[in-house]
Every structure is written in structure tokens, then in C-alpha cells.
Amino acid sequence: MSQIVVDLLKAGVEANTTDKYKRDNVVFLPAADSVIITGDLHGHRRNFERILTYADLHNNRSRHLVLQEIIHGGPQDSEGGCLSYRLLFDVVRYKLDFPDRVHIIMGNHDIAFINNKKVMRNGKEMNRSMRSALDREFGQTSPYVKLAIKQFLFSQPLAVKCDNRIWLSHSLPSDRYLGKFDQKLLYRQLKKEDVARQGSAYLLTWGRKHSQSLLDSLAKLFDVDVFILGHQPQEQGWSQAGDNLIIVASDHNHGCLLPTNLAKPYTVQELIGSIVMLSSIS
To answer: What is the domain partition of the chain in residue ranges?
Structure first.
């Protein structure tokens, strides 16, 4: 069983690495296509199923799907261990079905797992919870599974840049740490120090409460007009958190997704008008 999972994750690493739209740590989506944007999943299998139903990639050959932060949340084993890695395995399988159209971007919980550092969610330390569940399911072979998970998470892109000037990433550096963020990270090979605390990938995925001046500066730096992020919890599924920023969440009953046509530009209000609540998808 563990070798099957390890082989699956290795295939996932290869799919991430060879994604034809990925250059270094950014996926560049072409104007001829469309994309379904989702927020954090955190083990929410029902919402993942709804997303797949809506995306219907089998019948929409020019459609892309962006997913993020699959782990840490959802079902638990009999001892309270986090089983979200099972959803991660299914997401990897889906990536393998559509290797150039499913793009899974790196989140802060992914970095926490890579570094085996504490990360809290709903009052629980999620890495200990998930690693304990992996130990119970895979026994003596669990170290190999954990390593394969780390390698897959490390291979994920950091951002998606759309031809219509929309930027997708888990978060952005906060105002306080913008001076420490090296944008060259996006256009070179990812290094271990990038995901270490205060590394540039760490800063990109952990930032919160961005000022408008910071958003405007980053829009110029990345040459984009609108940011769509996850990371920050959204009780109602989404919020407009700046003149050019929308935050979406997909990890609870009020979660949502956001479909866009890459051939046309959007205002923030047009994007908000396109939001689809996941509960409306049967």
C-alpha cells in the first residue's frame, strides 16, 4: 500500500515539474483558455467533488483548474488524527488525469508540513495530527510516505499568472516583510531556504492584511491588475480585501469558486459577480 502511494506522489512530482504552462515557479495561462479558481480546501472532500463537477474537465478541453492547500482539516481517524492526506492523494490522481490543466499552488500549511513545524487550525496542531494518522495507517513505512508527501508539496508552483492580468497565489508578502521578499524566487529553481521561516516562499504564502499601497506596489512588480488569493479565512466564502484583491475560500459550507474567461479582462466587481457558491452545485 505505501509503495503505491509513494509511486503516486512521485508521478505527481513529475507532473508538476513537466506542466507545459509552468516556468520555474509560475504557471502562465494562455488567453485562449478559461480557468476555475478555488480557495483553500483543507480536507473538504464534498467541496472537492463539487468543484470537479463544475469544472467538468473531461468535456471542457480548454479549461484549467487551480487548487490550493489540500491538507489539514476534514475527516479524522478514531484517535483524532487528520486524514486530509487521503484527499491529497485523490487530488494528485486528478492532476495526473489532466497534467497540464490542473495546477495546485503552494500554501502555508504545505510549507509547515515540509518543515515539520507547528501550524494551528481550529485550535489543533495540524502537523502532529496528520503525521500521527500517517503513522497509524502506514506503520513502519510511514517515513517513506511522509517524505513523498513533502517532495510533492515542494514541487508545487507558487503562483498562476493569467494572460488577462489576473494573479493567483495562496497569499502575498505582508507589508512588514515586503523588503525581505525576493521576486527572483518566481523565476528560478526553488531552494530549501526559500521555504524556511522568512524565506521568500514562506513570506509569499503566510502574509495577511495587505495594505492598498502594498497591493499597488506588487501589482506593478508582477505586472498584473487583480489578485485572487486564499489563506485568510472567509466565513461567507469570499471578500473584497482591497481595490484589486479578492480572497476566496472553498473549505466549508459557504465556500465558493470563481470561473473566468482568460480571453477578457475583468474588473474586481465583474469577478465578484462571477463567484459561484459551492453549495449550489449538486
So the answer is: 2-235+251-280
